[in-house]
Amino acid sequence: MRQPEASTRYGIVRGTEEEGVVIWRGIPFAAPPVGELRFAAPRPPSSWEGIRDASSFGPVSLQPPDTRGTRFRGQQPVFSEDCLHLNIWSPAEEDESLPVMVWIHGGTFLTGSGSQPMFDGSVLASESRVVVVSVNYRLGPLGFLHLSPLGDGFVSNAGLLDQVAALEWVQGNIAAFGGDPKRVTVFGESAGSMSVAALLAMPSARGLFARAIMQSGASQALPPEAGSAIAAALLAELGLDRSSASQLRSLPAESILSAAFAVAQRLTGDSPGMVFQPVVDPATLPEEPILAVSGGSAAGVPLLIGTNSHEGHYFFREGTPVPPMEKSLRALEQTLGLSDLSALAPYYSEDWEGQAGMMTDLFFWRSSVAFAESYLGHGPVWMYRFDWGVEDHTLLSKAVHTAEIPYVFGNMDFLRTLGIQVTPELQSLSDAMRSAWTAFAYSGNPDCPALLWPEYETDERATLIFDESPAVVKDPESEKRKMIF
């Protein structure tokens, strides 16, 4: 039996047992990144005496408000710079050491938290016999401002360094919670998936995990020149320059966020784009992830990667403002680091559906296929596509961005909060995805008796399509793939 009390290198924590799962919430994996540690690399947490209560989630990273009310589903989390906490779900009826799945949340590097209801790890832990960990990391300008050229202890990619610190904590402490540090799978969606791509490229992350899963996001990093220009614009917005940059550590965080969002609005307008994101930086992310993995930076680490069939319909919806096609193309070119996409414009209508399709194909699918191809030869790769839609649902009638997450986690209760009836077909699909993901966590191969899944190679491009009846398809939509490449 797993006990609610566990000993870490920093002290004892007491969690709670809930329906066969022991849950520890809000464990600090690094010191609060405040004061002199703002914009600095994460430091180890302080030790404590006695038993630390771990029954409640810790604060989440400062971020824009949840205007849709979907991020925390009515909960009222505390927002704070002191956000570097993680959460653990471990099956109570277990004594043996189990594989560990470390979840990195998405949110365009601006929003989100490991404590969002969608990411509840209870079902994964209890029914699939794994230890689930979710982490927070610094977001927006506090986590992704290119400041290392300033020296004086400033770093770039602080949010990625937070993720590395969390993985280091897992390596040093997870055995006390029933996890096997030699079988750690890092998985994430959207910006979390892009984070996984970066971790596969970062020298400091090497050896901290054994397998990787990337859901709806691939290689993403600004060139250093662009990162420096954004940092300079933010300093100017705050009335600072290089010589007075040290004041960044003492300014109210709200002032920094307000200035950052003003800069982002000027740079992107009404077009989709990420101003605050990973940046190529010699000390932390020496190469774009796709170039690093093509050179073997993650050699030997199995990779599972895929996208949803209607990613873009999450961002473009009927009745919402649609930017001119030329502006959307420029935003995609800047985001993807491509010189000219204008030849593809005639294949997409200029209305919201056309632009949604263009985002799905170019930003998500194309990038994931390119990353998978770059990875081949250095480790085994499996490719999937999620196609399932819930008929007549206002958002999930198509397989939009984020739609696969509750199925992977087996989180049917979350789907019910969205007004979805959990049918046997829906439950069966979730069981199939959960079985494949956890088989991968156990062995580095998602193939399982109920779901045969061949590796992805460029000759056949075997892709597992998750729909009402999951099936392997060779080179799905091959003509479109050839067009967008």
TrEMBL record:
GO molecular function: cholinesterase activity
Chain ranges of the Carboxylesterase type B domain: 3-474
Domain of life per record: Bacteria
Enzyme Commission identifier(s): 3.1.1.-
SUPFAM superfamilies hit by this protein: alpha/beta-Hydrolases
Keywords, ordered alphabetically: Hydrolase
Pfam families: COesterase (PF00135)
Protein family: Belongs to the type-B carboxylesterase/lipase family.
The name this protein goes by in its record: Carboxylic ester hydrolase
Organism annotation: Paenibacillus stellifer
Lineage, top ranks: Bacteria, Bacillati, Bacillota, Bacilli, Bacillales
